């Protein structure tokens, strides 16, 4: 479990196949599909396989992996946040996504700060983030965390233009 900043309203835990119902719901949420992309996960068995074999649960690499985000006092996950090493980026990529009941409340900012702090403690020195040009809400979260817009690139999976943001441990 990651420890958020003092006064945090959330708890983060490593994802497992037990979180497959949540993952199935998030990966098929219309906002996720529009802003992040379709991972082709349509069944509980596919969600279990995604969690067992996918990049969300690669915790063996220092600082990497995604965490389920739970609002304190409310059962169930409302989002995910973590770091993944993408083959098309030189540094780990910060990512997050929330169900409707977890959006617009500052939870992404809290979760992402906890994930970055964990990454710095694990020895990461630089983190990137990619975001669609029209995803202004996520851009605001990244900028609030101190990430700075660097350049544009095309998404290898969709061909959509993305902003690439960057932050270093000393920032």
From TrEMBL:
Residues 10-170 form the N-acetyltransferase domain. Gene3D superfamilies: 3.40.630.30. One of its GO terms (molecular function) is acyltransferase activity, transferring groups other than amino-acyl groups. Keywords: Transferase. Pfam families: Acetyltransf_3. It comes from Inhella inkyongensis. This is RimJ/RimL family protein N-acetyltransferase.
């Amino acid at each position: 479990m990651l420890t958020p900043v003092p006064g945090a309203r959330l708890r983060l835990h490593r994802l497992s196949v037990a979180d497959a119902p949540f993952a199935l719901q998030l990966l098929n949420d219309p906002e996720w599909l529009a802003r992040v992309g379709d991972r082709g996960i349509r069944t509980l068995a596919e969600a279990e396989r995604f969690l067992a074999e996918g990049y969300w649960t690669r915790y063996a690499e220092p600082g990497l992996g995604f965490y389920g985000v739970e609002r304190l006092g409310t059962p169930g996950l409302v989002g995910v946040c973590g770091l993944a090493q993408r083959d098309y980026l030189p540094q780990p990529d910060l990512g997050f996504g929330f169900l409707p009941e977890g959006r617009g409340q500052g939870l992404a900012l809290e979760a992402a700060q906890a994930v970055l702090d964990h990454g710095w403690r694990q020895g990461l020195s630089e983190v990137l983030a990619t975001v669609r040009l029209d995803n202004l809400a996520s851009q605001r979260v990244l900028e609030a965390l101190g990430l700075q817009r660097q350049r544009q690139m095309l998404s290898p999976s969709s061909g959509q233009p993305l902003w690439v943001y960057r932050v270093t441990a000393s920032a």
